């Protein structure tokens, strides 16, 4: 089965920002979290994938199809959520349903109604009368009600309370119970990734700085602490580090080697996704 997503050497420049040779792929059956700080290029990448922006270079294939030439076929199979509200404020939920059901061949009315009940969304309410959480739930309900093979979601849990967040993450986990389906979602909430992502792709300043599995993060990455003398010996094994008056603290992607090599002389602690993100944002160059 072909990959659900294949992005190769994607490029897009604004006046003071550029996406530079972004590449990643997602196979069916998996959830990929796309993580990075504010302004890293997450929404731009997602809008390019959905052909809402024009790319300046590279290739985007969804289900093995070109995302521009085969846009209609591709969009039928995608459920998406964008970070800006895109429903008309004066329309009711019922009117929104009527509108989107006309576009999707496989619109599942019953499923949508089930979500309305589950998420306590009254169909007569206008969009402008919904809270942020209700809007997010509505957007997810629309994305999940046409048997989409792939969900592309821009910060679907941003601004939501922990209960709603957990409900939405639960729905995403359900999606990949079907091995033909997959989820790609951007976030800067690293705990969401800890909960549901199989793959984590980090973007920083328009570049992919790390693309790996969550298991690999647990195995290979660690926070290392030691003296300045030790830093000089292991610098080449650090991705990033920061020095203080007394010593250093750094991130390694070679935890297995370092554990063996240092024979208990260095302190190695488990690196969380959040630590990795902070190091890539703030740390100094390692080698
Ligand atoms: N239409 C545009 N015109 C000019 N610059 C833009 C435009 N859209 C985005 N940018 C710039 O591209 C960069 C990346 O923005 P983007 O929205 O992709 O980041 P992001 O990772 O989604 O951030 P956030 O987490 O804050 O939503 C920013 O510097 C932003 O100012």
Question: Which key features would you list for this structure?
Answer:
11 helices, 287 residues, six-stranded mixed β-sheet, Rossmann fold, binds adenosine-5'-triphosphate, 29% strand, five-stranded antiparallel β-sheet, 2 domains, elongated, alpha/beta
Tell me about this structure.
With 287 residues, the chain is of the alpha/beta class. It has two domains: 5-212, Rossmann fold, CATH 3.40.50.300; 221-285, no CATH class. Helix content is 35%, strand content 29%. The chain contains eleven helices and 15 strands. The strands form three sheets. The protein has a six-stranded mixed beta sheet with strand order 6-7-8-3-9-10, sandwiched between helices. Strands 14-11-13-12-15 form a five-stranded antiparallel beta sheet, sandwiched between helices. Strand 4 (57-62) and strand 5 form a beta hairpin. It is elongated and about 70 Å long. The mean pLDDT is 91. Bound molecules: adenosine-5'-triphosphate (ATP). Residues 14, 17, 36, 38-44, 83, 188 line the site of adenosine-5'-triphosphate. Keywords: ATP-binding, Nucleotide-binding, Transport. InterPro entries: AAA+_ATPase (IPR003593), ABC_transporter-like_ATP-bd (IPR003439), ABC_Transporter_VariousFunc (IPR051782), P-loop_NTPase (IPR027417). Residues 2-230 form the ABC transporter domain. This is ABC transporter related protein. Pfam families: ABC_tran.
């Amino acid at each position: 089965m072909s990959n659900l997503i294949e992005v190769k050497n994607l490029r897009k420049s604004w006046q003071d920002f550029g996406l530079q040779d972004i590449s990643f792929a997602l196979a069916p059956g998996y959830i990929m979290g796309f993580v990075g700080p504010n302004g890293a290029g997450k929404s731009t990448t997602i809008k390019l994938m959905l052909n809402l922006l024009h790319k300046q270079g590279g290739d985007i294939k969804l289900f093995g199809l070109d995302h521009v030439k085969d846009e209609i076929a591709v969009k039928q199979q995608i459920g998406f959520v964008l970070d800006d509200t895109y429903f008309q404020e004066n329309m009711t939920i019922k009117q929104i349903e009527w509108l989107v059901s006309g576009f999707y061949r496989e619109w599942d009315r019953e499923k949508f109604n089930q979500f309305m009940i589950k998420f306590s969304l009254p169909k007569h309410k206008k969009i402008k009368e919904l809270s942020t959480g209700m809007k997010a739930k509505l957007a997810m309900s629309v994305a999940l009600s046409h048997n989409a093979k792939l969900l592309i979601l821009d910060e679907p849990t941003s601004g939501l309370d922990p209960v709603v967040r957990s409900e939405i993450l639960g729905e995403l986990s359900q999606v990949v119970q079907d091995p033909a389906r997959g989820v790609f979602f951007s976030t800067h909430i690293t705990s969401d990734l800890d909960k549901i992502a199989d793959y984590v792709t980090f973007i920083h300043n328009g570049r992919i700085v790390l693309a790996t599995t969550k298991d690999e993060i647990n195995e290979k990455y660690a926070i290392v602490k030691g003296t300045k003398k030790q830093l000089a010996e292991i610098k080449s094994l650090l991705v990033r580090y920061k020095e203080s008056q007394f010593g250093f603290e750094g991130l390694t992607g070679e935890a297995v080697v370092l554990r063996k090599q240092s024979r208990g002389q260095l302190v190695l602690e488990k690196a969380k996704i959040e630590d990795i993100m902070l190091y890539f944002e703030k740390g100094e160059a390692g080698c």
